[in-house]
Amino acid sequence: MSFYIGNVLINKRVILAPMAGITSFSYRKFVNKFGCGLTYSEMISDCGLIYGNEGTFELLKSDGSDRPLAIQLFGGSKETILKGLQKLNSLDISYDILDLNLACPVPKVTKNNGGSSWLKDQEKLYDMVKAVVENSPKPVSCKIRLGYNDVNVYETCKTLEKAGCKFIAIHCRTKKQLYSGLPDFTQIKDLKNIVSIPFCVSGNIYTVKDALNALEITNADAVMVARGGIGNPNLITNINKALDNLEYDESKNLNEQLDYLKEFSTYLIEEYGEIKAIRMLRGIGIKFLDGIPDMKKYKNKISQETVTKQDLHKIIEEIRQNYIN
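Above: the chain sequence. Below: its structure as tokens.
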């Protein structure tokens, strides 16, 4: 089932969530071919754009292989968000949707009135989103939580639709919960009766069953895969198969997982250079071995002993020799 975000066709119901430190261009490029309906950049700071921060501009890299692509902007005031958007509009970047981060719960963001802090004041939220919609050449979407301390998700969604937002991604926890406890999908079970724009459900999607359960409860147009897909790109493929009533297999094939790790590492090295990419892979790379027996030793090697591309390849080949050949 396909749907539109403004004038942008989304032809798959599985969406790659924005994740700080994870959804680089390399990651989006790697994962997109597994069947993402939409990918998101990492959070882009409005002030980073305004002041020309080099690291911020790095996060905007794309060659089109990760599209449809949403650029996710965050900030703590309407004025700085609009200035950041003005800068973004001046850049030669190909993307499809402008997303506003109204969900991030971490203190370093919320203490500056960004992320989920926007959920506390509906009037201020409406004013900001309406202004962004009026100044964005792309359809505007918003990523939110159920609320800040208390649940006010229906009120927020009505506010966003009224302001011109074309799509809402909902992480089914409050800001107060951070990432603890279980997401409560029942809090948005009647959202289809509240707003007419499409929306997506997010929170603890680690298996096909998790995704189907979230979609059944919420009747959402799409499901968002975040931490559950790191190192497990076939989760996206399998959810799509299940939604198409096709057979799927959630077991991990070690040889295939090693191929994925090697491919992803190649993209990451091309983007960031060997030193930085290998440093990033110490945390991300081990996820490709999650759930596979007897891999603890090799996960430790990747996280503690990998310095160069050759180190990583040597570990991969050692695993193949000992468990596959």
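The chain has a mean pLDDT of 95.
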